[in-house]
Amino acid sequence: MATVTNPNASAAARRAQVLREYWNRARGPTTTVLGTIAAFFVAYPPLAQGIYYLIRGGWLMLGHGFHGAATGETASAFLAHSTGLLVLVIGAALCLAAYRRQGSPEVLLIALGSAIGLMVLDIVYVINRSISVLYLLDAFIQGGLVAAWVYGWRTGKEKLAQAVAATPPAPVPAPAPVSPPPPAATTPGQVTPQI
């Protein structure tokens, strides 16, 4: 499903073409709407993780705020709101990176670091019985996000290698003809040395 992109196309047109290719690739092997959406997010991990973190951060901000107000736990409510706000900001940054198609090392570090960190915290606290076993579902989702990043990185590397192999070498421009330098201007009464 390789397409030839127009090198003169605008950045927005190239971005739209890439998203169409991802969507078409995601639509291929599945027949359900949920399967299509999941395949699209696997093909485009920054958007998947960004949307998931926006939902998760919003849930922590709203959900625990109601629980903390009802039980009077102000310290845990503060921690839940702090964590929710940080996860919300990470999600917004990942969505912005997905929109701008930025795959910088900083974005990768934030994405993988937050996913691995939250996955480890979920597993440790479930083992210590500090939180519900339901948080293993979140750990599973975090592991899936890491796997999607690794898969996207590997397939992106392969696509880049294929694109480089398919690109013809650029023509080397011919050197400009060399002309002799113009004669030096002389002033009246000055003698020009003869070589």
Task: Report on the architecture of this protein.
The protein is an all-alpha fold. It has two domains: 34 residues, no CATH class; 119 residues, no CATH class. 70% of the residues lie in helices and 0% in strands.
Strand content: under 5%
**Helix content range of the residues, please?**
over 70%
* Overall pLDDT score: 76
Shape verdict: elongated
- The helix/strand series, from N terminus to C terminus, equals HHHHHH
Largest sheet: none
Keywords for this entry:
2 domains, mainly alpha, 195 residues, single chain, elongated, 6 helices
Describe the protein's topology.
Elements: H1 11-27, H2 33-43, H3 45-71, H4 74-100, H5 105-127, H6 135-166
Summarize the structure.
It contains 6 helices and no strands. The protein has about 200 residues and is mainly alpha-helical.
